[in-house]
Structures are given as C-alpha cells and as structure tokens.
Amino acid sequence: MVGLAPSPLPLLVFSVTIFLVFRHPRLRLPGNRYLHLDYGLAPLLGALILLPFVGPGTAVRGVEGWGGLRPYSILILILSLSYLCLSLDYRGLFEYLSLHLTRLSGGSGRKLFFLLFLLTSFLTLFTDNDIVILTMTFIIFYLARRSGADPLPFLLCQFFTVNTLGMALYIGNPTNFVVGDGMGLDFVEFARWMLLPSLVGAFTGFGLLFLLFRSRIPSRLSPPEVEPSSVLRERRGVGIGLLSLSSSLLFMSLPQELRRIPMWSGVLLLSLPTLLYDLLVYGRKIPPLRRVPWKLVPFLLGLFIQVEALSSCGWTSLLASHLGFPGTWSTLFLTALLSSLLAGVMNNHPMAIFMVRTLQSPEYPGMRKAAALGLIAGSNLGANLMLTGALAGLMWAKLLSDKGYNLSFSRFSLYGFSVTLPVMAVISLLLGLELG
C-alpha cells in the first residue's frame, strides 16, 4: 500500500540492471577469462538475485505474464517472424525488392525517400511493426549499396514511421494488446481514437526528417545496372518462405474470434514449413538460424520478472498516487512522455504492464481514458527516443551491426528526441481534440 514504504531492493537491482544494459562491461575472471554483461545476461542475473527475496511465485507470474500479454508468446512470435525474414534475406528477396524500388524512383533521391515512406506506412498499417522493421531494413541496405546513397536518412525514416504508425491499429504492436485489454479498449474503439493521430504524426515525422536530412538525400541517384531477378537464389525456397510469411501476416490480421488459436502458436506453425525446407536444403547448419537474435530471450524474461517484483512490492501504487496531471492535454502528453522514457530504461513490453497496473491502481487520481491513450502513444514512440525502448530497436541495432553499419545509442537518441517530441505533441493535441 502507499502508506508503507516499498522495499528498495527491487528498485536497486533494477537500476543496476539498466546501468549494465547500457554499459555492458566485460568482467575479468580467474584464468584470464572474461564475462560480458550485455543486454542478454544482465537482466537475467538481476532476476536471479531477486529470486530469494521475492519468492518463486513472483518469478512465475513474471514469466506467465498478465493482462493478455505472455512473455513466452511474444518471444516465440518475434523469433518466428525474424527467422522467416532472415531466411528470405539469405535467398536475396529483399535485394530484389530494393532494385525494383530504386528503378521506380527514376533516379531521384527525394522521390525514393518518399516512396520508401509510403511503402513503410502501407506495410505497417496491415501488419506488426517488428516484421516491417526487419523487412524494410534489409531493403534499405541493398538499395543504398546499389545506388550509392547514404543509408542513414532512409533507415531513420522507416524506423520512426513504423513506430509512429504502430499505434494506429490494435495489431500494430504487442503493447497495444496490453493497454487495450487492460483499459477496456476493443479493436474498433482503439482504431477510433488512434488511427487519425498516428497518421498525422507519421506525416509530421516524415516532414521533420526531410528537413533534417535534406542535404544528405542526393538529388540524383545512379540506378544499378543489375537485373533484379539475377540476385534471387534458390527460388523454391523463396516461394515457400513468402507463403509462410504472407500466411503469418494474414493470420495475425484476423480478429481474435476467427483465429481460434493464440497468435503466437499460429505464426509458429506457419513458419515450420520454411524451417523444415531449410533443414532439408542446408542440413543442421542452417545459416538464417544462426542470425536469429536469441539474446532477446533472457533479456525479456529477466526484465519481466524484475517488473513483477517492483509491482508486487508496491511501486506501482506509489507511482499511481503521484500521477494526477491537471487537464486533458497535459495528461495525454505527460503520460506519453513518461511512458516513452520508461520504455527506454525498461523496454516497452514490461513498461506497458507496469503502467497499466499503475493506472488501474485505486490510488490513481487522474483521467484514466486520457492516460490510457497517452500510454499507447508512449509505448510506441518510446522506441524512437532510445534504441532500448523496444525489442525492435535492439533487433534493428543488431541488423545494422551485422550489415557493417554501427549507429550508437547516443547518436540515435539525438535524432530521436529532435523528431519524436514534436510528433508526440501533435498526437497529444489531436487526441485531446478527439476527447473533447
């Protein structure tokens, strides 16, 4: 309860965990060996340290999830989709698409920038944001390599657009399920509030990015003299992978009453044909399987257990008693800003659970509907402020590194705050007008 001081231990362990995630130090061990405390190991160690103090029940609740969100289901969903995209990339599909997109631009760098924005927006509205980030990142790298363009403006455009439009519909981001279910928003009501503000916000962000990078977007590009079909390898595998991916996207877009089975299990089953075919072609050493971001498993599970410990010790009730913002617009904007910043330090999935529990607390004195809409915005836009704000950001950073393009967390946040804060203000203003 609020009257009792919550135990400081979960907060201390959580703070140290976040510090280690950002610093990821290497510790020297006996025998001239080293232990790398990266984002995959630090949260799990923190959870193990807390276990004797909070009990196994807290750990079980952290793994099982709450409010319609199951950590294991998110992991299976993301890893399955990631594998499908990596398999298609290995066979040259995204390089093939990038060549066609470059040809369509007619050699105009600015037209290509706008075409990329439109394609990203279209894909994001009809599927999950993580899958769009995976597919479009591959396309941009091949596009930049073939045309000689600077990839940074195009990379940031697709990443910021995806995370802005991810709040438009219920299926756009797993955190939308958490907030929607926890705060009583169904599919139709969710779209009623969030669709228009997210669209306006996406175009606002595009305009700001164009102004920011207009000198780095070449006016003319040299279209590659390569036949797109020549970059495809093993076309039967491309066909099977596309069938698995398109079936997964269609399944994810179905209303819950038509799916019959959980989303994660359906996508897992639909990805199995591609995995089995790759096993037949490559044997046990499947190249795409080695590139899957496996470190997300301990990262997410460790953070969920720690957030559950924070909640069970009373930190959500304490925060709830101090979150009564005056006025509709201030509630929308400040809740979006707070949740965005919290997503940067605890990832948006655990943050969404933590904040929903905070808003549901009897101690919360503010306007719950406005706060819920602000939380939806913040859980999506947090990924645009810091790379740690979402799993997609961590996967994206790994993809960039794998492609030989290192974008530091600080440099990303410099661009992110410059673009996202005005976008957040515009979205909050439109939500305020909708709420009347």
Give the helix/strand layout.
Layout: H1 8-23, E1 26-29, E2 33-36, H2 42-54, H3 56-64, H4 71-90, H5 93-104, H6 109-126, H7 129-147, H8 151-165, H9 174-183, H10 187-213, H11 235-253, H12 256-259, H13 263-282, H14 287-290, H15 296-312, H16 315-320, H17 328-346, H18 348-360, H19 368-385, H20 391-402, H21 409-435
Antiparallel strand pairs: 1-2
Helix pairs in contact: 1-2, 1-15, 2-3, 2-15, 3-15, 4-7, 4-11, 4-13, 5-7, 6-8, 7-8, 7-20, 8-10, 8-19, 9-18, 9-19, 10-21, 11-13, 15-18, 17-18, 17-19, 17-21, 18-19, 19-21
Report on this structure:
73% of the residues lie in helices and 2% in strands. α4 (71-90) runs antiparallel to α11 (235-253). Strands 1-2 form a two-stranded antiparallel ribbon. The two termini are 34 Å apart. It has 436 residues and is mainly alpha-helical. The model has no long low-confidence stretch (mean pLDDT 85).
Radius of gyration: 22 Å
Oligomeric status = single chain
The SS-based structural class is mainly alpha
Distance between the termini: 34 Å
Taking the sheet with the most strands, its summary is: 2 strands, antiparallel
- The share of residues in helices is over 70%
Q: What is the count of β-strands?
A: 2
Order the strands across the largest sheet as they lie in space: 1-2
What best-fitting shape do the alpha-carbon axes yield? globular
Ranges where pLDDT stays below 50 over 5 or more residues in a row are none
Query: With helices defined by DSSP (H or I, 4 residues minimum), what is the helix count?
Result: 21
The amount of beta strand, in percent, is under 5%
